[in-house]
Design brief:
The chain has about 475 residues and is an all-alpha fold. The protein is built from 21 helices and no strands. α3 crosses α14, α5 runs parallel beside α7 and α7 packs parallel to α21. The longest helix has about 40 residues.
Length: about 475
């Protein structure tokens, strides 16, 4: 069935192009997004008051959707500041310094560990686990924080999430929509996931090394979120690091990874993933923060605990502040439109983004090559809402349609659309989707998105070509 495209759809497309243009020019997009929200609301409701209210309501919706991520980032930053100031962090990273001696080793080690952990527990808890321990090591051996963020992002939110071989949440959605077994989608995705992953991470690493060599990318020496760090004199830092005895530091340095390993065991035994796994990591981080504050600051522990938490939340909202307007706009492309503005889309609409994907699919001729290109394009379009998962049922349905028309390739097309949707929307190109890695590493999420853009596009082109030969 052909979906009716209305003025709302074309306004949304126009503002996507404008927002992308502003990002390329390295200009802030908050005002553009707010204007876009207002125009969409006014076009739908024809009410000035409702349109103005929709701006505020869209911000509330975006904050609600992002709140779990904001909290885990803020808590991890609070814990990391306590570790750094008391000197526990230096003890924790000392074994890794002996193993990771170069920026290249740091990039690939962080990436591969991120991928493996993300296969079992999804990327958000993996970012929290690795960031606190391995980021300081990466910085000390000369890998820029942006490079560490790229490694976490591309391997975790890219390779691991797009394949989702263990938890199988993504292939289950696409397989059900395509009417084929989940195992078929998983098997078909294996070569495509690894082609995409290998090409993208290697290209990203080459660009990273080039920019480090020519000096356009500086190597930082600070830790997690330290651009919001309090300014302490050397004498004050020495006093802070002497609050704990060497023995206490070693005990806490051993206890922290032990507690996180217990978390990993609990995730496996209790079958926790996604938000549940993130909550477990967050609760453990709070417990560690309380322990360090009370042991190091003793009688002042109560006040220092609050101080660390305040700094963490200040950092979290400082990082997420610029992202909320753009997230609010893009959420209107999916279910957010009805919740924020109301029932103003056509009766058969599945959301602005999905409507655009269906319309594109109905305007192209059908053969293996065109089918592969279309599934990649539709998957990427549906990923623009920043979830990566909202549109993969659509690509599954389209893959089934195209496979029926050309007589082959249902599983390959389904896997290809899934990969495109998740690489774009799951956390490598959409700024608010890749915030966990950006915030943990203390880098600008928009700059991280720009860094990822060319490698991811190259990866998608190569993967689409490979898929043409597999159909």
């Amino acid at each position: 069935m052909v979906v009716e495209l209305t003025a709302l759809h074309w306004i949304y497309v126009a503002f996507i192009l404008i927002i992308i243009g502003f990002m390329v020019m390295r200009r802030d997009t908050s005002l553009v997004c707010i204007i876009g929200i207002f125009l969409l609301a006014f076009t739908a409701t024809q009410s000035l008051s409702a349109s103005i209210s929709s701006i505020f309501n869209s911000f509330i919706f975006a904050i609600t959707e992002l709140l779990g991520t904001i909290l885990i980032i803020s808590i991890i930053v609070s814990m990391s500041k306590a570790l750094t100031r008391t000197g526990v962090n230096d003890v924790m990273i000392s074994p890794f310094i002996k193993l990771i001696r170069t920026p290249a080793l740091a990039y690939w080690t962080i990436g591969i560990l991120m991928m493996v952990i993300s296969w079992f527990f999804w990327p958000s808890p993996a970012v929290a686990l690795l960031g606190a321990v391995l980021l300081p090591v990466a910085l000390r051996v000369g890998l820029p924080a942006l490079g560490a963020a790229m490694a976490m992002n591309l391997f975790g939110h890219g390779i691991a999430l797009s394949g989702d071989f263990i938890i199988q949440g993504a292939p289950k959605l696409t397989a059900d929509a395509a009417g084929i077994p989940v195992l078929d989608v998983v098997q078909a995705s294996i070569p495509l996931v690894f082609v995409m992953g290998i090409v993208t991470t290697i290209v990203a690493f080459i660009f990273l090394k080039r920019d480090m060599k020519n000096g356009t990318l500086k190597v930082e020496t600070t830790g997690i979120g330290d651009h919001s760090e309090k300014h302490f004199s050397k004498k004050e830092m020495d006093q802070l690091k002497n609050l704990l005895t060497p023995g206490a530091k070693k005990l806490i340095a051993f206890l922290i990874p032990f507690l996180f390993i217990l978390d990993v065991v609990a995730m496996s035994v209790l079958n926790l993933s996604g938000g549940d796994a993130t909550a477990l990591i967050g609760g453990t981080a709070i417990f560690i923060l309380l322990l360090i504050s009370m042991l190091a600051h003793k009688n002042n522990g109560l006040e220092e605990t609050t101080s660390y938490l305040i700094e963490g939340f200040q950092f979290g909202f400082r990082v997420f502040g610029p992202v909320i307007p753009i997230a609010a706009f893009f959420y209107l492309g999916d279910s957010g439109f009805i919740k924020i503005i109301g029932e103003f889309l056509p009766a058969a609409s599945a959301g602005i983004v999905n409507d655009l994907g269906v319309a594109l699919a109905h305007t192209v001729p059908l053969n293996g090559e065109i089918a592969a290109i279309t599934l990649t394009t539709v998957g990427a379009i549906t990923g623009l809402d920043g979830s990566g998962f909202s549109g993969i049922s659509l690509v599954g349905s389209l893959a089934n349609l195209f496979a029926t028309a050309i007589g082959a390739g249902a599983a390959t097309l389904t896997a290809l659309g899934q990969i495109a949707a998740i690489w774009v929307g799951g956390g490598t190109l959409i700024p608010w989707a890749l915030i966990p890695a950006a915030a943990i590493c203390g880098v600008d999420p928009f700059e991280l998105a720009r860094r990822n853009l060319v490698p991811v596009v190259i990866g998608l082109v190569v993967t689409t070509i490979v898929a043409m030969f597999l159909i």
